[in-house]
Amino acid sequence: MSTAFLVKRRGAAVLGGLDAAVRRHPTDQTRLVTFHAVGNRVDGDIHRIYDLTPAEFRRHVDAIAGAAAEAGLPFRRLGEWPAPGIVVTFDDGYADLVGTVAPVLSERGIPFHCFVTGDRLDAGDHRYLDRAALAELAAVPLAGIGAHGWRHAPLDAMQPGERDHDLRASRSSLEDLLQRTVDTMSYPYGRVNGEVRGAAQRAGFARAACSTWGFAPPESDPLLLPRIDLWAGDSPRTVRHKVLGHWNWFGRLS
Ligand SMILES: [Zn+2]
């Protein structure tokens, strides 16, 4: 882990604690929380924050549930936004969604939404869901499925035609496989600008999550929903503070 990140993270935890001591944040705003892998290595994860162990994932879920109870916030499906609550999301489509995540969250009755990268399904990489596993995940009653780009490339760096193709392919591949409407997505690497947002809308997406830090109040642009990142190494106290809004100033630093 880089020293700069470590310092920023420690500083953020201290400031989050101070914020928690002096203020309460509104409870009428949805917070989308972001996970990646639980037990699978994440490419490019230089700070090693996106792969949780199953035990740590359970502790994070317990901490989120505690914060939810404290704030009187229900867990919600992404499709219920902007109704206030907590929406649990996963990026990239790791294979552990079926074996680890779905059982843990189903047992607790917590809905969750999985943004799946199209071309990983056929990549033969055991870290990611393949088509059969995705179908299995989609059959889990509390699981929602959304797109995460066709080839997980930064959409803002593509030419317009390539971008349109990537977005349409990301959606149609999932719809063909699952035989259901897929109109939600998250932007690979959180990379989005006005052109990317417009292309997502033209491709038929109704809701899209980015990596901008913060709550998603009802007045948010549904195609630019902010989220709150949960990391490996976060203490239960930090997870609680993040969900309750005490890290909401963090987006201005990152
Ligand atoms: Zn991703």
Describe this structure in words.
It is a single chain. The chain is of the alpha/beta class and 254 residues long. The chain has a single domain, classed as TIM Barrel, CATH 3.20.20. Helices cover 38% and strands 16% of the residues. The protein is built from seven helices and nine strands, in the order H-E-E-E-H-E-H-E-H-E-H-E-H-E-E-H. The strands form two sheets. A seven-stranded parallel beta sheet has the order 6-5-4-1-9-8-7. It has a two-stranded parallel sheet with strand order 2-3. Helix 1 (3-22) crosses helix 7 (236-244), helix 2 (54-71) crosses helix 7 and helix 5 (160-178) crosses helix 6. The longest helix has 20 residues, at 3-22. The chain is globular, with a radius of gyration of 17 Å. It starts with a helix and ends in a 10-residue tail after the last helix. The mean pLDDT is 95. Bound molecules: zinc ion (ZN).
